[in-house]
């Protein structure tokens, strides 16, 4: 599969990793047992590859979707890295946690797949569907997947739209994790994105 299905705390424990789409926190220091964190400088290709994998782990796109976002960002005006990062943040499974309708991105992805979060009263079941500014987003019914909706508040099954939100504007760079470095992730696709 193209997405990470294994243990998430193992990835979060790596040096420089942001928590990502998980509530788990490592109880050990980075590095293997009885070993210190390596201090050698990583080669540029490794840095680009790790940043690309970090973006995929956090936002959840497939390899082809990541390449498509980079291609669209290179054609758009502005910084290629910031435009591609904004494209990732406008995905349905990324914008729903920002509105408080889900606690994690994987939980939001599952609720979108089950059509629990329509946009402008239209059912959407594609997690990578791009939400535009002024899109009205709602939770159609309480989600029982153990992730988000039932933790935010108890809802009645007869309520059609218990919660709703509005995407007012594109995500600003200052709202994103400062440890995220989008430029090496974009530079990982130099030729494929032409």
UniProtKB/TrEMBL annotation:
It comes from the Eukaryota. Gene3D superfamilies: Ribosomal Protein S4 Delta 41, Chain A, domain 1 (1.10.1050.10), RNA-binding S4 domain (3.10.290.10). Residues 3-89 form the Small ribosomal subunit protein uS4 N-terminal domain. Keywords: Plastid, Ribonucleoprotein, Ribosomal protein, RNA-binding, rRNA-binding. InterPro entries: Ribosomal_uS4 (IPR022801), Ribosomal_uS4_N (IPR001912), S4_RNA-bd_sf (IPR036986). GO terms for cellular component: small ribosomal subunit. Residues 1-68 are annotated as: Disordered. Residues 1-28 have a biased composition (Basic residues). Transmembrane segments: none annotated. Pfam families: Ribosomal_S4 (PF00163). One of its GO terms (biological process) is ribosomal small subunit biogenesis. Coiled coil: none annotated. One of its GO terms (molecular function) is structural constituent of ribosome. Belongs to the universal ribosomal protein uS4 family. This is Small ribosomal subunit protein uS4c. The gene is rps4.
